[in-house]
Automatic annotation (TrEMBL), chains A, B:
Protein name, per record: Glycoside hydrolase family 92 protein
Signal peptide: 1-19
Known partners and oligomeric status: Monomer.
InterPro entries (alphabetical): 6-hairpin_glycosidase_sf (IPR008928), GH-type_carb-bd (IPR014718), GH92_a_mannosidase_put (IPR005887), GH92_N (IPR041371), Glyco_hydro_92 (IPR012939), PNGase (IPR050883)
NCBIfam families to which the protein is assigned, alphabetical: aman2_put
Domain Glycosyl hydrolase family 92 N-terminal residue range list: 28-258
GO biological process: carbohydrate metabolic process; glycoprotein catabolic process
Molecular function GO labels: carbohydrate binding; peptide-N4-(N-acetyl-beta-glucosaminyl)asparagine amidase activity
Keywords: Calcium, Hydrolase, Signal
Length: 742, 742
């Protein structure tokens, strides 16, 4: 009786605490936003940076997040990634409630009544007349299955199932063991997938609230009724639990997941303290509210829905796997599923730095620890293995960004070593895995020549990464190193071809051969898009020619001066051309290399044009539908881009610079980790009033169209006055810094 | 009753079969030979190429095979390597019979009554008054423990124990689970060690023949009596089983080992069909007899003891891990613990090709499968990870050797691809891991310059490896590739410095800078030995200057012609110089780069001098003591060198050439896999009669001092007449082939 009172008091206290510090913003999160139209976001239950992402694997199991809009459901698996492109990864430890005999060759079922909400997924499986409700915590999943009346109701656990597509995953092996009529454990070992990584093993331990009347296992395509375990012979295995059920009978399962072992998987169930679905779900929702409540908004419900869902999407990855690293023992944090830093260094990680700097610090520390044990920091990483590198060694920019924004607790000396290793030591055999490919050229010729793949992307990105190295070296007092890399950060100019003309603009990034000759114009065009083996990766010269984030002033000069540069930006943002199937603008927010370009107007003193492009993009490319994200969310990249611009500014990653665009909300209060608040107000802000008329930063008039992280890191205020017409604001103030002018 | 009869009949049949096909040669194997004096061979129970090598880990746990001569015994662990140098590897899943409380900080015990025989190890543990007897099969170990009278007898299983030294292993994690009063399972995950490899996991399942009265576990340094399992938190764990024993009571354990999972470890116990120590041991001994009986000898008992023990040592590694590959699923064989091919390509693998070509074929197939999945063939590999490369990419030579000796069932096209990858694609970040380091120099300058480590070893070895590539390309009809690599195989000449003089001989391998200038003589000496970061790896210029196996004729020319070359060999084999601590000959059979040099006299028409050097080496550097192997056995390399020369010939690996030296035994019959026999007789052979007077090969007079594999691959006869004085034989016949003269 005494105990009950104590529990009651604690519950009361928790409730009070919740009411004080958190508002239920979770209602604004709609996991359906962006599931379709290539957004590829993961719609199933999970918590911020959670290791378990529990959701359905559908159709041909070739959708990157497992879910697809119409395909049959094969089951619910526990590990997924969100918003990725290319080949699939994960889709491990799959469970399904069925009735009748198991058709091992295809047990999938059509679905109906699918309903997705934050940390809750439910669906009816028509083939079996069963229902499933799912929720999840950090390292465990909760399944609530509802059966019809049947003496052959079953829960199956398939350890040979995983997502598949091109750049495919392959089964290495699996093991399963039924421990009792309510317990089963085992593992699934897979290699490959998008990052072409080595083998990873997902262990599980599942317990059920109802004893099974019979159990069995399978191996390859053969069922073994009554057999309690299957041994790893590089084949698929699975297990099933059979129940006699009355109509509507529920059987629940709690499933612990681990990358270490089955004992650890079981221990990871400690966080799952209840057999009540709603209680478990509430625990997850509370974790989301803690993140979401870092930003309090005043504005339209529609925009809030887009915004908070974007926050939700931004905080899905990388995944916190501290304590779950099977490759080395370390006291450092461990994060996996950097998928990919090429995408997320631009907006997502800067968002973490602003809202959750302690987590961003942990991520940086994990990157350095990966360098120390695996040899290189990753540009992408998944399944405990580095890969792949799309362009530059973009983790360099994360380090520089952390340093200029004052993140503490990071070993910057070792970080610099790892950056220099990227720059100087070729990764060898597989140049898509890590480090920098083609540096035999870059470090001798000053550019990557056409004899290497992705030569254009690499040269331009390496230049910006070199600037990041210089940034860190300079702050560490290593002047000689800083000088060397500042110098190298000009290398983009070595493949700038002044002779190329397009749509009235001269000078473009252009393929150059190792002998110094240019690729002829009949072999390459400024509109040629490419991928892995090509000159440019997921971009084209018209767009990638803007990619000089560290020296926009020099870029302006190369483009013929400010006026011509503004014209060039205008063309980029307005020109439409026939692209095989439709007219398409040159600017596509769906592609990261263009992320920063809208704010380049600021560098030419025209923040009003930045506002126009940004607000048009927010308005036309983001919405609350299933296709509400402009393209592949790329691990929250599209979402983070939205968040920054909706708040009214955008980071130039690796530099202590935010460029002002156009705030969407009338007010936004950011609760910073240090307990301070950043209060953003935008008087008169509306769909029409998109132009900044004036800004006050921390109470002082701000006549320039940018500010520094240090200006807001300790809280403060950012007061915009908005209007329907361009104003003089920001046009004559100090311009943002650039390498060649600072 | 019926069953008993059947078993009796089977036993009888097995017995008869054994008597017909096998002689008990196991009595000639003394596992103590070479355990000390740096031989580092593994003395414990195991079977040919067996995955489990069960033996004691002693002293500071810094002896490469676990055993040391005097240190305390920590316990008996299941995975070891034999005859390795550098840092330790393995020493996993350690068990010990004790009495009383467990001192987790040091439970080791002094020993007495240690006795080692083939597949049997026994010892008394003085601290506890317990005894242990061990034997092992391919994937499982058998422990027979004898306890004193005690109500606190214990068997402990430590999953945090492993061998340690420089190039050290590190614990990644471990898990343990007691399943019943007679069963326990778990794993130990380790990374590092000599090859600086990634993490490997050793799983185990142990069952005892006696129920424990109590059990418990530990984690880190804390005991948990009664707790049945420990979870992986990157710390060491262990378990113990307690018994009440009467004096002399035996408790036996059968332990299955796996690199896949605990179920697989349990399944691997299937081979262990008896709880009777002798029965299990006999199974192991029979497997050894099957190997040993491939050579039937007539000669002294002493020499037979050395010979058969050398065979035993040669057949310990690489380890057959087919079905135990946790990195990919494949139908190809899987071998691990190539430790290292730099050692074993010279004599050990050629021995396999002669005696067990089907196994050598499987090994080559495993190398190609490793290339297909890990990116490079290994030069060394352990714990499922490539590393390290000491000089060349010597697996190239294995491929060429297999091809010229006609091994079937190998995908030579893919093999050639992998060889070309070695030659052309730099391994990157860690150039000690795989492939060829320094090829930015080698493939442009024609040599590895002094700006790279091991530049001398690499240049000379790459040249021979290039010859191997040309050999394979030519046989595949790829003339252009063959020509290119034949050309490159001359590259050793690019760092041959005619101006260097030593002990009256001119022209030596010499460090050359990238600008083409030579290293000055006051900075380098022909006597300078080196290791990883140096110009030469485990050799010195006087010795390594001979390393031109593919073009000995050109080497003779560079040395000033035959006469001068013979003089130079004489100097190499007779000169002694003060080497810090003692006078030392230039020639040291303890070091592989000198392995082939004795037979170089054959290339100059002086096989009598080959005989002298070889027989002196066999006589003075090999014996039946614990220091009976001239140096580190290097995974059977020293042993295989002995075997070939004791038979009277030695391979020039990668070429279809055996060079005749001087047979030790009066007769030797080799039972080949194809059912044919090679009968070697050596009339008058004795310690004095070391000179070949004449040879008949397959009944025909052989006037040259070499022959081809094809001459003996289908059996035949090799009839030597020996005498006490050099004869004219072999001096005027056709000389062995060389690149520049064939």
């Amino acid at each position: 009786m005494k105990n009950r009172i104590i529990i009651f008091v604690i519950t009361l206290f928790t409730g009070v605490s919740y009411a004080c510090s958190q508002v239920d913003l979770s209602k604004y999160v709609d996991p359906y936003i962006g599931v379709d139209g290539g957004g590829n976001v993961f719609p199933g239950p999970c918590v911020p940076f959670g290791m378990v992402k529990l959701g359905p694997d559908c159709g041909n199991k070739d959708w990157n997040a497992g879910w697809d809009p119409t395909g049959n459901i094969h089951g619910f698996s526990h590990v997924h990634v969100s918003g990725t492109g290319g080949g699939c990864k994960y889709g491990n430890i799959l469970m399904l409630p069925i009735t009748g005999a198991i058709q091992l060759n295809d047990y999938s079922s059509p679905r109906s009544e699918e309903a997705i909400a934050l940390s809750s997924y439910s669906v009816k499986l028509d083939r079996y007349n069963t229902q499933a409700r799912l929720t999840a915590l950090s390292k465990s999943g909760f399944h609530e299955y509802t059966f019809p009346e049947s003496n052959d109701s079953k829960i199956i656990i398939d350890l040979g199932s995983f997502l598949q597509s091109h750049e495919k995953q392959m089964l290495v092996g699996s093991e399963v063991r039924i421990l009792s009529d309510t317990e089963v454990e085992g593992y699934s070992r897979i290699r490959g997938g998008w990052n072409e990584g080595g083998p990873y093993t997902v262990y599980f331990y599942a317990r059920f609230d109802t004893p099974a009347k019979e159990t069995g296992t399978w191996k390859s395509n053969r069922l073994y009724p009554g057999k309690l375990s299957q041994t790893d012979t590089n084949e698929k295995t699975g297990a099933y639990f059979t129940y006699q059920t009355v109509k509507g009978q529920k059987v629940c399962a709690q499933v612990g997941i681990s990358f270490m072992g089955t004992n650890k998987a079981k221990a990871n169930l400690e966080e799952m303290k209840s057999w009540n679905f709603e209680e478990v779900r509430n625990t997850a929702v509370n974790q989301w509210n803690e993140i979401l409540s870092k930003v309090q908004l005043t504005g339209s419900e529609e925009n809030k829905k887009i915004f908070y869902t974007a926050m939700y999407h931004s905080f899905l990855q990388p995944v916190n796997r501290t304590g779950e690293n099977p490759k080395w023992a370390s006291d450092e944090p461990y994060y996996d599923d950097y998928f990919a830093i090429w995408d997320t260094f631009r907006a997502t990680h800067p968002l973490f730095t602003l809202l959750v700097p302690s987590i961003q610090t942990d991520m940086i520390r994990s990157l350095i620890d990966i360098y120390k044990h695996d040899g290189y920091m990753p540009d992408a990483r998944s399944g405990n293995d580095n890969g792949r590198v799309q362009g530059g060694s973009d983790c360099d920019i994360l380090i520089a960004d952390a340093m200029v924004k004052g993140l503490k607790g990071i070993d910057y000396e070792t970080a610099l070593q790892s950056m220099i290793k990227n720059a100087e030591i070729a990764p060898g055999g597989d140049e898509r895995k890590e480090g920098r490919g083609g540096i035999d050229d870059y470090n001798t010729l000053g550019y990557v020549s056409t004899r290497h793949e992705r030569a254009g992307s690499r040269t331009f990105e390496y230049a910006n990464c070199d600037f990041a190295i210089a940034t860190v070296a300079k702050r560490l007092g290593k002047q000689e190193i800083a000088e060397k890399y500042y110098q190298r950060s000009n290398n983009w100019q070595n493949i700038w071809n002044d002779g190329i003309e397009s749509l009235g603009h001269k000078g473009f990034l252009w393929p150059k051969n190792a002998d110094g000759s240019w690729c002829p114009e009949d072999k390459f065009s400024v509109f040629t898009s490419g991928t892995w083996p090509d000159f440019l990766y997921e971009t084209f010269s018209w767009e990638m020619s803007f990619y000089v984030p560290h020296d926009v002033n020099k870029l302006i000069e190369k483009c013929g001066g400010k006026k011509q540069f503004i014209n060039r930006l205008d063309t980029y943002f307005t020109h439409e051309r026939w692209d095989q199937r439709w007219f398409m603008g040159l600017f596509q927010i769906s592609n990261e290399p263009g992320f920063l370009v809208p704010t380049f107007y600021n560098y030419a003193g025209r923040p009003d044009k930045t506002a126009e492009v940004v607000r048009k993009t927010l308005r036309t490319r983001y919405n609350t539908t299933r296709e509400g994200i402009p393209g592949n969310d790329d691990s929250g990249s599209m979402s983070s881009w939205y968040i920054f611009h909706a708040l009214g500014f955008y980071p130039n990653a690796g530099q202590d610079v935010y460029l002002i665009s156009s705030p969407l909300f009338q007010a936004a209060t950011l609760s910073l980790e240090n307990g301070k608040e950043l209060k953003i107000t935008a008087k008169n802000a509306s769909d029409k009033n998109i132009y900044v008329q004036s800004v006050r930063l921390n109470g002082k008039e701000l006549d320039k169209c940018w500010f520094r992280h240090t200006d807001i890191a300790n809280g403060g205020s950012l007061e915009f006055i908005m209007g329907s017409k361009p104003s003089k604001w920001g046009k004559s103030g100090e311009l943002p810094p650039s390498l060649s002018t600072n």
